[in-house]
């Protein structure tokens, strides 16, 4: 709204902006501003142009703070803008005072302003490049996940195949061990029964001698009987000592690979790798370049487990 009109409780749309007063002015107040002896030197700009400036530009002090006058000169010694009063009071001895219009002329096409524009373009290109790479990483990760799933399934199939082959071979050995152990046990039992029959026959002879023999006959046979008894007992003790009658018991002892498989608990780990994105750029006219870090390979604990299982 027009600032002077608001003091009169009137709401009037401004058409101009006073750079010195920092006020919006309607048509009537603009005419008064131009005709007033104390205000006519103030520069007015269309209010729409004022509104189109960025906020930081609108807040920049473009008038002399002390005298409230427009800047008219620039002092290279003090590196400041000042009004005509400041020039008379403070810069008479300065030998590098230039008119303001000479300093700011063609500012839009100056090297400094062009450098800012180029820098902004390069900065925007960097952001766009990083944004594109970030979006690409989502697609790339999907591909990586599919690759990992495929790789893990391959590991599972290899482990299953290896286990099936190992289990089949083990069960064949188990059946053979069962058959061999049974055959050996049957042969042992057969031999024991033969020796048992001999002892039973010996016992029957002793019983018959006791029942029908005379004391003299028994006395004369004692040495023979004792010798045969000692012989059979010694033979049996020797066979027991040599393990001829040890019983076989089939047991299962897991291999080191099976124990390792129990201890693993996980087939692998998911690693999140930070791959630095290096964005290089030059000056005006040079494009932004993206330098990607070398792709790192991933390893899984499952490979180690599979290797142990296969070797076992």
Automatic annotation (TrEMBL):
InterPro entries: TRIM45/56/19-like. GO terms for molecular function: ubiquitin protein ligase activity. This is B box-type domain-containing protein.
């Amino acid at each position: 709204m027009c600032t002077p009109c608001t003091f009169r409780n009137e709401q009037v749309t401004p058409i101009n902006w006073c750079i010195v007063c920092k006020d919006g002015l309607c048509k009537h107040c603009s005419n008064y501003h131009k005709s007033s002896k104390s205000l006519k030197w103030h520069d007015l700009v269309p209010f729409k142009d004022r509104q189109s400036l960025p906020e930081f530009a609108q807040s920049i002090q473009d008038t002399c703070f002390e005298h409230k006058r427009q800047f008219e000169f620039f002092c290279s010694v003090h590196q400041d803008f000042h009004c005509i009063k400041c020039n008379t009071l403070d810069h008479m001895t300065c030998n590098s005072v230039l008119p303001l219009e000479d300093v700011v002329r063609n500012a839009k096409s100056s090297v400094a302003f062009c450098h800012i524009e180029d820098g902004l373009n390069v900065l925007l290109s960097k952001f766009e490049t990083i944004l594109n790479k970030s979006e690409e990483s989502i697609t790339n990760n999907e591909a990586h996940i599919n690759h990992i799933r495929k790789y893990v399934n391959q590991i599972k199939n290899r482990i299953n195949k290896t286990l099936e082959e190992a289990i089949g071979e083990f069960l064949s050995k188990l059946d053979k061990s069962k058959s061999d152990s049974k055959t050996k046990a049957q042969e042992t039992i057969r031999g024991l029964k033969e020796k048992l029959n001999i002892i039973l026959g010996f016992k029957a002879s002793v019983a018959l001698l006791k029942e029908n023999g005379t004391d003299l006959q028994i006395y004369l046979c004692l040495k023979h009987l004792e010798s045969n008894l000692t012989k059979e007992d010694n033979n049996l003790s020797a066979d027991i000592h040599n393990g001829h009658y040890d019983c076989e018991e089939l047991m299962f002892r897991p291999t080191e690979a099976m124990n390792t498989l129990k201890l693993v608990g996980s087939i692998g780990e998911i690693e999140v790798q930070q791959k630095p994105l290096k964005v290089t750029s030059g000056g005006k006219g040079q494009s932004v370049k993206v330098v990607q870090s070398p792709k790192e390979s991933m390893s899984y604990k499952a490979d180690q487990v599979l290797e142990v299982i296969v070797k076992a």
